[in-house]
C-alpha cells in the first residue's frame, strides 16, 4: 500500500473518509496530519525562542541585531503556523495558502544553500590548491555534515509540503461539494 494513494476520479459525492484524504500510510486523516505539522512547528518556534533568548542574554549588546532579526523571523513563522492551524480548524483553504507559499520558499532556499555548500566544499575551478590543504579532517566533517543536514531538511520539508498540499486539496474539495458548485454542474 503506497504512502500517498493514487488519485481516483472525482465522484459525485464527497466522502471525507475516503482514502485519498489519508496520509502517513493511511494512519492519519489529512486534517489531523496538517494539524500535527502545525503543532510540531509551534514546538520548533518555542525552542528557537528560548535558544535565541539565552544567546542574547549571554552575549549582551553584541547580539542585539541578531535578536531583532530573529524576533521578526519568529513572529512571521508564528503567524504562518497560526494561519495553518486556523485554516485547518475552520476548514478555510485561504488560510492554508500562506503556509504553502512559505514552505515552497523554504525548500528553494534550502536547495540554494545546499548548492552553495557543495560548491564551497569542493571549490570552484579558480580555487587555490594550497587553501584546500590547510583544512583538516574536522573541517571536512563539519562541511559534509552541513551538506547532509541541509539536504535532509529539504527532503523533510518536501514531505511536509505534500501533506499540507493534500490538506488544501481536501479543503478545496469539501468547499466545492458543500457550496453546491460541483464539477459536473460547471
From TrEMBL:
Coiled-coil region: none
Transmembrane segments: 35-57, 63-88, 100-121, 141-165
Membrane-topology descriptor: Multi-pass membrane protein
CC terms in the record's Gene Ontology section: endomembrane system; lysosomal membrane
Family annotation (InterPro entries): LAPTM_transporter (IPR051115)
Record key words, sorted: Membrane, Transmembrane, Transmembrane helix
The protein's name: Uncharacterized protein
Protein location: Endomembrane system
Species annotation: Plectus sambesii
Record's signal peptide: none
Amino acid at each position: 500500500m503506497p504512502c500517498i494513494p493514487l488519485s481516483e476520479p472525482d465522484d459525485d459525492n464527497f466522502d471525507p473518509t475516503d482514502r485519498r484524504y489519508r496520509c502517513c500510510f493511511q494512519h492519519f486523516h489529512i486534517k489531523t496530519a496538517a494539524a500535527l505539522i502545525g503543532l510540531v512547528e509551534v514546538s520548533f518556534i518555542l525552542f528557537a525562542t528560548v535558544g535565541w533568548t539565552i544567546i542574547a542574554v549571554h552575549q549582551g549588546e553584541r547580539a542585539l541585531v541578531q535578536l531583532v532579526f530573529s524576533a521578526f523571523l519568529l513572529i512571521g513563522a508564528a503567524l504562518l503556523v497560526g494561519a495553518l492551524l486556523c485554516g485547518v480548524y475552520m476548514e478555510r483553504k485561504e488560510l492554508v495558502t500562506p503556509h504553502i507559499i512559505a514552505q515552497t520558499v523554504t525548500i528553494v532556499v534550502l536547495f540554494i544553500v545546499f548548492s552553495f555548500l557543495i560548491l564551497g566544499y569542493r571549490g570552484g575551478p579558480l580555487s587555490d590548491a594550497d587553501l584546500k590543504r590547510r583544512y583538516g579532517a574536522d573541517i571536512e566533517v563539519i562541511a559534509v555534515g552541513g551538506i547532509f543536514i541541509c539536504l535532509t531538511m529539504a527532503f523533510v520539508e518536501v514531505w511536509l509540503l505534500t501533506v499540507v498540499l493534500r490538506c488544501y486539496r481536501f479543503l478545496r474539495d469539501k468547499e466545492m461539494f458543500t457550496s453546491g458548485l460541483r464539477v459536473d454542474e460547471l
